Amino acid sequence: MKDNQHMRQKMTGTNDSNYQPDELKAIASFDALGIFATLNKLTALSNVAQARLAECFAQNDSIPSGFTALDFLTPEEREEHHILRLSLAICVDEQSEANKRVNARLKARHEEYKAKRGAV
């Protein structure tokens, strides 16, 4: 939890008192669930929405103009979806995570190269 708070302060230069109520809910949700449970819940909600969209299409042979799968969520589900998406946007630094993965691959490649050169 402290790591998440530190990361948010580093990313935004602010502390938790500068967030809006929905943002505070999102942060609390992320701190309680973590990234994998957050992603799993978001995927589950998206699957429910997609199933309802497919059911509507099967029954009516059409979908109302401008509708997306998210329009088939209940207000409570839509709120939860919003909080989960917001928590990922606030609490996950995707660029930093991607840089770490790239650097790890480069390091592994470099180590492999060094091992091959040493074996010759």
Description:
With 120 residues, the protein is mainly alpha-helical. The protein has a domain at 21-92. The protein has four helices and no strands. The chain has helices at residues 2-12, 21-60, 75-91, 94-119. The longest helix has 40 residues, at 21-60. The protein is flat. The mean pLDDT is 86.
List keywords for this structure.
120 residues
- The stretches of 5 or more residues where confidence is low (pLDDT under 50) are none
Order of helices and strands: HHHH
Shape category: flat
Separation, N- and C-terminal Cα atoms: 48 Å
Supply Rg: 21 Å
**Helical region count?**
4
- Percent helix among the residues? over 70%
Global structural class: mainly alpha
The fraction of residues in strands falls at under 5%
Biggest β-sheet description: none
Tally the beta strands.
0
SSE map:
Elements: H1 2-12, H2 21-60, H3 75-91, H4 94-119
Helix pairs in contact: 2-3
